[in-house]
User: What shape does this take?
Amino acid sequence: MVRRPVVLVTGGAGEVGHGLIHRLAEGGRFDVLALDLRSPDGAVAARCAAVRTGDIVDRRFLDRLRSEFEISIVFHLAALLSTRAEFVPERAHEINVEGTLNLLRLATEEARAHGGPVRFVFPSSIAVYGLPDVTTKRAAGRVREDAWLEPVTMYGCNKLYCEHLGRYFARHYRQLAPEGDASRVDFRAIRFPGLISAFTLPSGGTSDYAPEMIHAAAQGKPYTCFVREDTRIPFMAMPDAIEALLALLDAPPSSLTRRVYNVAAFNPSAGELASMVRHAFPDERITFEPDLRRQRIVDSWPEDVDDTAARRDWGFRPAYDVERTFHEYLLPNVRRGVEGH
Ligand code: AKB
Assistant: This one.
């Protein structure tokens, strides 16, 4: 039976999956196979060549996919984010690590089957960083990729280990086996900051206070922010995150000096975000009641990151600063409703 060539997008029903699948459909370059525990919404599913629901931890499920589809590109977006993972850390490890190992194994088997490399694009996170306290965080400023790698969450530990797994598959896989047994998995990763989408609501993240604040205001609901006003971490508009994934996918291997890259766009404080929201929605009531345990997680993440390597190696350039994110991306769309896409 001839297998259908597809790009595999895991986490197809999630926030990044929503943005990526819509963008891939615009380009018309690829047939998308979307995979998730639940079906994506109708508009996303309509843009896919195929949709399959199942658990990436289930190897038999993944083997069945391989019997139908030929996979040469993987966007592995499925993950349990930082807040949700802290309630079920062992399950988070299963999904975030065992699931990723299963996808790397699938990519290796696919490369062997069709004889070409498999590009494996992986969203890592600023959660891999662990600054010990706010004073150190403020002094550290824009953190480079090789500094402060002591994550305090299961999610951050998972993402950091999966970066190492991907590097192993790309460079050292079965290094003592007979020659020519390389995996041919071309692993590439981006450490995303907090992502803000106009079209989907966040779930399970600790950076979610930013999108939650904006969507609450658009729905005319008061918002109680779970971090202090002076809390500062990097954020990015979802369109820039999607373009970054595609730019890294298309970067020639020879241009990449590393497998894992920081990207940055803007880093307002929670109080600065609230001021912008109140200016756009004058009746909006935003209060601050820090959840000290979630606050401790966000305080361990950097105020900003150094994305020099991404700009140099594959031309990363965010199109949206905080002003343009608000006035050209968020406000026109959130006022239309989160499912307006
Ligand atoms: C989270 O909050 O867990 C994610 C992230 C920063 O990776 N949005």
Remarks:
- The chain has a mean pLDDT of 96.
- Residues 89-114 form the longest helix (26 residues).
- The domain at 79-195+236-265+302-320 is CATH 3.40.50.720 (Rossmann fold).
- Residues 81-82, 125-127, 155, 192, 194, 205-207 surround 2-amino-3-ketobutyric acid (CB under 6 Å).
